[in-house]
Amino acid sequence: MKGLILSGGKGTRLYPLTFTSAKQLIPLSNKPVLFRVIEAIRDAGVDDIGIVIGDTGDEIRTAVGNGDRWGVNITYIPQDAPLGLAHAVKISHDFLGDDRFVMFLGDNVIQGGISPLIAEFANSDYNSQIVLTAVSEPQHYGVAELGADGQIVRLVEKPKDPPSNLALVGIYMFDNNIFKAVDAIKPSWRGELEITDAIQWLVENGYNVHPYIHRGWWIDTGKPNDMLDANSYVLEELTPKNEGYVDRSSDVDARVTIEAGAEIINSVIRGPAIIGKDTRIVNAYIGPFTSIHHDCLIENAEISRSIVLENSQIRNVARRIEDSLIGRNVVIHRSPIRPQSHKFTLGDNSVVGLLND
Description:
Elements: E1 2-7, E2 27-28, E3 31-32, H1 33-43, E4 48-53, H2 57-64, E5 73-78, H3 85-91, H4 93-96, E6 101-105, E7 108-110, H5 115-122, E8 128-134, E9 142-146, E10 152-157, E11 166-174, H6 178-184, H7 195-204, E12 209-213, E13 218-220, H8 224-237, E14 245-246, E15 251-252, E16 256-258, E17 263-265, E18 268-269, E19 273-275, E20 280-282, E21 285-286, E22 290-292, E23 297-299, E24 302-304, E25 307-308, E26 313-315, E27 321-322, E28 325-326, E29 331-335, E30 345-346, E31 351-355
Parallel strand pairs: 1-4, 1-6, 4-5, 8-12, 14-17, 15-18, 16-19, 17-20, 18-21, 19-22, 20-23, 21-24, 22-25, 23-26, 24-27, 25-28, 26-29, 28-30, 29-31
Antiparallel strand pairs: 2-3, 6-11, 7-13, 8-11, 9-10
């Protein structure tokens, strides 16, 4: 089998963070989402992976390279415009050939990896296997309607009136019959070749499309709250370790990961949390479900359930920061202006002045 990761798109729902960075490279627990997807595919025994790239392709290439660090081979497939998931499959035909393949959206995170899915598909006569999970707002996703026998009746892309609460997770397995389907369908009202239409074509033409119901957690990290939720789930799965320095005046609980070169001085850290390489935490409180990336400084401040990217500083902030995404090279410090609370989604290179209480 081969792997196909879709890593194009502009990530508009994560603006302003994605003005300057690919959404797939925003880290969860200090590791980019795209890296987690590559590892999930590799761990399922697939080592030949294509990555479909768009406007942020140069950044993706620089970050991922040729795949050596994961023991896989990476091939890049440029997509001139975001013309739909089925279009991404179509332009990947030369790379995929006649091999079976797994397609994984590069901004999705799933509990438990995909090894069981790959094994089930590899040992079956399915022409396709799609992963479904129950969601609270199915109108935002591709949705599957199943019959009494548990098989797929129809698929609908972002329906106003969803026929079920079963959303397509963003992980698909296909054999080469999918290319017949993408050649047969027409662009949707959005001007895109929809993968739901291609799968529907397979169903209507008698191909064996198997629905796999995923029971664990799954996050599409397309919005700030989704990123924070996914970060919380991933942090809970970490095996904590301490490779840095914690002084005697600090209180760090057992669910905290401290990476090499990090220093914790006279501070309290409540896990699950991770402190990145060469980051300094001084006279500070780091609350649960927080990821602080490398080369940051948190001093005389409190932060909880947040993600702070590399080279950022939070200094002398009187009120606790919560539920926030803070980009790279951001500086947050005191200011004479008086807000009453703090909640941020800050892009790279931001500078924010806060109330001096």
